[in-house]
Amino acid sequence: LVVVIDYGAQYAQLIARRVREARVFSEIMPHTAPVEQVLARKPKAIILSGGPSSVYADGAPQVDAAMFAGGVPVFGICYGFQAMAKALGGEVAHTGGSEFGRTALRVDDHGRLLAGLADELKVWMSHGDSVVAAPDGFAALAGTAGAPIAAFEDLDRGLAGVQWHPEVLHSESGQQVMEHFLFDVAGCTPTWTAANIVEEQVALVREQVGDKRVICALSGGVDSAVAAALVQRAIGDQLTCVFVDHGLLRKGEAEQVERDFVAVTGVDLKVVDASKQFLDALAGVTDPERKRKIIGAEFISCFDAAAAEIVQAGHGDVEFLVQGTLYPDVVESGGGEGAANIKSHHNVGGLPEDLQFKLIEPLRTLFKDEVRAVGEQLGLPHAMVWRHPFPGPGLGIRIIGEVTAERLDILREADAIVRAETTAAGVDGDIWQFPVVLLADVRSVGVQGDGRTYGHPIVLRPVTSEDAMTADWGRLPYDLLERLSSAVTNGVREVNRVVLDITSKPPGTIEWE
Ligand code: XMP
Questions:
Q1: How many domains does the chain have?
Q2: CA of 469 to the centre of ligand 1 (A)
Q3: Residues 13-29: what's their mean pLDDT?
Q4: Catalytic machinery residues
């Protein structure tokens, strides 16, 4: 374990991910955690992250010198570098040489931290203060125009630091610097692999569950599928999965869950075909938020009923519920132990609080890319593991207007054509998500063959994004757009127009509703 101490900037998660990319497990702790608590975790190394303050500002978080006395290697980054220098008797000053963004770094002495790297590196900086004198025992390694000492190391004590952000992709050789610290200074071993994660989680789930029964709601999405497959690997037929088919999925997705997922995992799957129930409940509804509420409520009632049936079928009491909570949710909701504050897993519509189950969250230490690696390790189908995000209310919020069976068929067909073409063009990895939207209440005149048509438009909404909070419209090649347009209008009789959405988020959202 490597502990990343979060000094309040947005970089701690990125650092933790880079450490894991080096196959070393890492977790984030807040800078308010007492040193004894950090050391009690018995970390192989500690990394101090960047932060927004100046080390001399009133109330700026300091590093307790005890952090460096426990014999655990420590790496300071940016603010953490300065805080380390100050705590050990070095000097940090406001030199007036603030540097933000790409900065030229001069390496004077490669030492172990920068061994084998170029003598000049472009690195990503964000600092006002600078270290002007290294603490005793440290060798200064590099500098920039604004930071006389931009890297140092003390190999006897396993301490090192850099002023720049090696975790940021714009920093040249950034990952190498991280790895030099982890392996050559701190002596970590790279054992955090998908195979080991699976083995460890399987053991933990077995221990937690004992001989009790467990249920899991599958949504068709990546997280619930991987969580279920892991738990299945651990406890076999003590797990029952419930898949509520609300009839709002894309073409082939329900079959994929029913057939491929079961074939690979051997899971005991209860499929609830509730499409009629959902359609009836949605009849006449056009308001997006009402659609969401109705879909959420129907989902809960179906899931509840399925859970009750499982109990009645004589399987005994169901004691645990599997949730696909991920590590970023845990960190953002305050981290720590227990499941308090975790935002409800909205893929499954938000399960009700009065479902009295204990939670099993086998993904709560993982980032999304690790979830995918675990999914592949468990042998889940590639198409399931690499699925783009898809909203819980499904196609229900991609039909602008009332949701009906006919309209769902039109959209499902158009969407399937778009997916097949984009996958064939090899651009799935370049886009975050690609909603295909039916403007069901809009009609326009067209001409097909000799006849006049009066059909519906389909909107293509490819977007790029890092986290769905902001997004840009995806610049797909013109020839692909042309193929999409003719394939959809040729393939779906009711559609006579295809339009491209070129709105970023903000001001638009990714979905139309
Ligand atoms: P927006 O449209 O708000 O979408 O830019 C951001 C991300 O959230 C997804 N989304 C939802 N997911 N239930 C979900 O499970 C919902 O009601 C919902 N609405 C939007 C959307 O697909 C995108 O990834």
A1: 3
A2: 10
A3: 95
A4: 78, 165, 167
